[in-house]
Amino acid sequence: MGSSFDISAGDYDQNFTHSNIGSSQRKQVYVYLKNHILNYRKLDILEVNCGTGEDAIWLANKGHKVLATDASKKMIAVARNKTKFKNAIFKQLQIQDLNQLKDRGFYDLIFSNFGGLNCLSPQDFSHFLSHSKNLLKRDGHLIMVIMSKNCVWDNLYLFIKAKWSCLGRRNTSNSNPVYVNGQKVDTWYYNPKDILNLGTETMNLVDYRPIGLFVPPSYLESFFKNKRLFLKFLGWLDKCLSRFSFLARFSDHYLIHLKA
Fold first, then answer.
1. What is the pLDDT of residues 38-48, one digit of tens each?
2. What does the pLDDT look like over 17-26, one tens digit per residue?
3. Dihedral angle at the C-alpha atoms of 137, 139, 140, 145, nearest 10 degrees?
């Protein structure tokens, strides 16, 4: 898995992080974090699938101590070159190897943004939830942003493109091949109910919210690149409807908040 994302490390920020769509969806995540967990005290945070470090840097800039991990060696290299914050440490580590971390019961928050956990099979995801509980302090938080099964935008795009045989492609319990710069990455999609079924004996549900219900998936960036006002309006609609958790399974991503 790491080598697939090594290939995209050099242009990941340009293609997603700093894109209009990526920025709009990330803003929605940050609003939730600021309103629900970050403004009370300084936290010890473990980030999983940190990519090029954008979120870790944002968290460190707010004074939190962050250990940011990713399977991709080159993603980690890009992240290290972006910041000199001493409270942000970057480490190459597979999700499946989190049990190697020695800081048991140390973290206030484990955070994973924008679908990195969709690379996990249901069995691996269940193991991840168990490892997370072991790494969290008592009453610690696990916040994940995951790609859903029933994204309305994805099905609308496939319908307009007359790719009718692909309609509902996310809505399966099997993996789907997603190609990253020509490299196949097996990807599973999960609705909030699926995550709860995997982790109900491990973690308690706090909340879940749609992320990108009206703001589209990032593969539509080229279409929306010159439509910033329209995209801003879609972001406003997302903000207005974010509290309606039942809409989460229809959005591109959703945020789910669990507690140990």
1. 987 899 999 99
2. 999 999 999 9
3. 150
